[in-house]
Amino acid sequence: MNKKNCFAVLFMTAVFGFSACAKDPAFVQVASSTIPAFETDFTVAAEKTVNAVVCIKSYTTRSRNQYNGGQGYDPFGMFDFFFGPGQQQQPRQQPRQQQKKSEPVQSGLGSGVIISEDGYIVTNNHVIDGADKLEVLFNDNSTYEAKIIGTDEDSDLALIKVDAKGLSPITFGDSEIVKIGEWVLAVGNPFGFNSTVTAGIVSAKARSLGQNGKRPGGLNIESFIQTDAALNPGNSGGALVNLRGELIGINSAIYSNTGSYSGFSFAIPTTIVKKVIADIRQYGSVQRAVLGCQVIELDAKLAKEKGITIVKSGMLIASVNDMSTAKELGLKEDDVITAVNGVEVHNHAELVEQMNKFRPGDQITVTFVRDNKKMSKSGTLRNMQGTTSITKKGDFSELGCAFMKLGNETKEHLGISNGVKVQGLKAGAFRDAGVKDGFIITEINGQPVNSTDDVEYIYNSIMKDSDEDKVMFLTGIYPTGKKYYYAVNLSAE
Fold it and tell me: How far apart, in whole angstroms, are the C-alpha atoms of residue 131 and residue 113?
C-alpha cells in the first residue's frame, strides 16, 4: 500500500474508528498509538447516586390554575429555574370546581439529594417555596412527609428532613477541582420519571447569570457550574456528580426559550452548598461575610485607563466602606483583587464563590495589585453590619414556631400582598395565644411582614422597649380564607 493510500485510511481510522489497513502491522501500531482511548463508563457513578436522589412533590391547600399550562417555572425569561409541573403526573386530576379549598393539591415536582443517614435532604429553595406540604418519594418507592429545616433564597438552596434512618447519603466532592471538559452525570426526576440519569461535560465554571438570574428583591445567583447534561422540569434540586459518583453541584437552572432543555444547564457548586447547609443546620440562617468594597471586573479598556499592566483580569476596587474588612486590610480605590486565600479570582462570580466559603470572624488573606506591584494582606471578615457576630435568624424559642415565606401564587389566591406562614408550632407564646399551624401573619402591631427578618425585627423592637407592654398583635388569615386576630403575650411570668 502506498503512502498516499495509507494516509487516507489513517484519516478514516481517526474519524470513523475503523481501519482498512488492518493487514499491515506497522500501520495498525501507528494508528493505535496516535489515537488515545478514553473510558466513559458511567455505571459506577450512576449506581452510587440514584439511591441518594429523591423526588419531591409539593402541595398547596388551594386549587391552582394548572401550572402554567404544563410549562416549566420561568420567572426570569430565558433562564428557567426548572420546578416541574405536577399536572404532568396527574393528567386525570379532578376538575378544579370539585376540589375542596382545604384539600392539598399537587402544585409542583422537583428533586432532592440525601446528605445524611438520618433524613436530611438538600434541594432548591424554589422547589419548596410556598408549599403547604412536602412529600418525598425514594428510589425504593417508600414515601415520607418532609418538614422544612431552613431556606436561603439568595443561593436558592433549602434543607428539609424526613423521619427516617439508615438512608444512603451522597458523597460530597470538591467543585473547585472540577475541570472544564470533565464528564459529569445529572441525576433527578424530569417530568416525574424517577431516578433519571443524563450525561454531559462541564462547559464552564463560575458562570454568572447576571440580571437574568436576579430574583426580585434578592441577590444575584452567582458562580454556577455550566454543563450540557440534559435537564428538564423536575430536575431542580437534583445531583450533579463526577464519574466517581461524588456530588459537585445541585442542579438549579436551564437556559431555555421553551421551559425544556435546549443546550445548557446550571448547577450550584458544592463549595457554596456545603457552607449554606452547614449554616442552616448550626445557626438557622446563612452567615455571610463581606469585604466591604465595591468592585468592577477589570477589562482591557479599564486596565489601559488605569495604567495597569501586570495583570489582565481581577476585581478593580471602585470604593471602600468604613468599618469594613477592606478598610482593615488597607485596600484602596484602583487596587485590583487577584486572589482570596491563595485562590485566583478573575471575575465577580469567582470572587462571590470564594466569599461564600467564609463566615464573619474568619481570617482571610487578600492578594491584590497596587501600582503594578503584587501585595497580600490579612484581616478578619465582618458581616454587612460591620461586626464579627454570628446571627441566628428565627430563633424564637419563646414563640414556639418558625416562619415560612409565602409564594406569589398563594398571596394571589388569598388576596394578600404580603405575609409569613406559621409552621412547626410547639409549646410557646403562639400556641398559648391560640395560634394554629398554617396561620398566615400579614401584620404584627400594624406593621406588614413578608419574611422571617421582618418578624425578627419587630420582635426585637418589642423586647428592647421597656416602656411598652410586650405584646404582639397579629393580623392574618388561614388558608381557608378566614381572617383572625391574636394577642401574643411576651411578658415574662
Answer: 18
Catalytic residue list = 126, 156, 236
Cβ-contact 265, 184 below 8 angstroms: no
Buried b (16+ CB within 10 A) or exposed e, 101-127: eeebbbbbbbbbbbbeeebbbbbbbbb
Strand 402-405 versus strand 420-423 pairing type: antiparallel
Give me the amino acid identity at 164.
A
Question: What CA–CA distance (Å, rounded) separates 254 from 21?
Answer: 46
With beta carbons less than 8 A apart as the criterion, state whether 232 and 83 touch: no
Residue 65 pairs with which residues in a beta bridge?
none
Which residue has better confidence, 368 or 106?
368
Within 10 A of 97 (CB to CB), how many other CB atoms are there?
6
Rounded Cα gap, residues 235 and 196, in angstroms:
9
| Rounded Cα gap, residues 466 and 444, in angstroms | 18
The pLDDT of residue 96 is 42
Neighbours of 446 (CB within 10 A): 8
- For residue 420, CA distances in Å to 36, 161, 451 come to 59, 21, 6
- Residues 359 and 487: their CA atoms lie apart, in Å, by 37
Torsion, Cα 462 463 467 472, to 10 degrees, reads 40
Cell numbers at 333, concatenated: 480605590
* Cα 1 from Cα 37, distance rounded (Å): 26
Instruction: Give the model confidence (pLDDT) of 439-470 as tens digits.
Output: 999 999 999 998 877 888 788 778 766 556 78
Dihedrals phi, psi of 264, to nearest 5 degrees: -135, 145
Q: What gap in Å lies between CA 110 and CA 284, rounded to an integer?
A: 23
In this structure, what C-alpha cell is assigned to residue 255? 437556559
Give the separation between CA 9 and CA 115, rounded to whole angstroms: 52
Pairing of strands 171-172, 79-80: unpaired
pLDDT on residue 265? 87
Vertex 455: Cα angle to 453 and 461 (nearest 5): 100
Span 213-235, pLDDT tens digits: 443 333 345 689 999 998 888 89
Q: For the chain, what is the radius of gyration of the CA atoms?
A: 27
